[in-house]
Amino acid sequence: MVHTQRKKILRYTAEAIQELHSRNWIHIDIKPDNILVNLDGGDTKEIANAVLGDFDIAYRLEDGKALRTRHAIGNAIWRSPEGQTAVGVTKASDIYSFGLLCIYAMGGGELLLLENYQDLVRFGITPEQEVLSRHFTYFGPVPDALYRRVDDEAGCELLRDMSKIADATVESQHERRFLYWSKELGPVAQDAISQMTTLDPTTRPTIEQVLAHSWWQEG
Fold it and tell me: Where is the Protein kinase domain (predicted)?
């Protein structure tokens, strides 16, 4: 699939998130499997539209309060850092997941997907631990604002432990940072995605700001 068609799918998805967020709902499970693509039926197989599906765990935010659940919900690979702790999930958490979706769509899937679940289990590593350590390696360092958002002893302990692993990794492999391996995307795409995947939930853009970014005007 060509670059422009992938961005078209992403644009439709962002507009679906905008509609959801405008009604004060969050999706919580934004991932490739939940994007349904319709083709125009012609020989060129152009994208007619794309829709965001699977609202089984979607949640309506009440009075601006963040969602807190007993266990983390949604697919671990695509969760926000706060989502991995099951505490502090908001619209900003959907934005983070959408940022990951953009990376996947633009060719970075191998950096996000977990192909070794059995190996993780064998070594006593949970998917949440693996994903957090990767994301902290890519998008770190971890800001204090993330700990304040989670504000949960067990959740913050998990974040701190994975942050230490990520910091040690970057110390010897600085090229693991998103800033380095995303250069082929171009500076405008880098800027758009880095805003969405910042580890500070309070500074992530709204979906309206995402849609207003100049990246969408690029070919």
Answer: 1-216
> What are the tens digits of pLDDT across the range 18-74?
999 999 999 999 999 999 998 876 666 788 889 999 999 999 998 879 999 999 999
Instruction: Identify whether 73 is part of a domain.
Output: yes
Alpha-carbon distance of 178 to 205, in angstroms, equals 18
Distance of CA 148 to CAs 62, 64, 133, Å?
20, 16, 19
CATH number at residue 175: 1.10.510.10
- Alpha-carbon distances, residue 214 vs 10, 71, 90 (angstroms): 14, 37, 25
Residue 75 in any domain: the answer is yes
Tokens matching residue 52:
């965001």
Report residue 48: phi and psi, to 5°. Answer: -85, -50
Q: 196 lies in which domain range? A: 3-214
Tell me the C-alpha distance between 138 and 140, whole Å.
6
Query: pTM of the predicted model, to two decimals?
Result: 0.95
Cα gap 26→90, rounded to integer Å: 7
Residue 219 within any structural domain of the chain: no
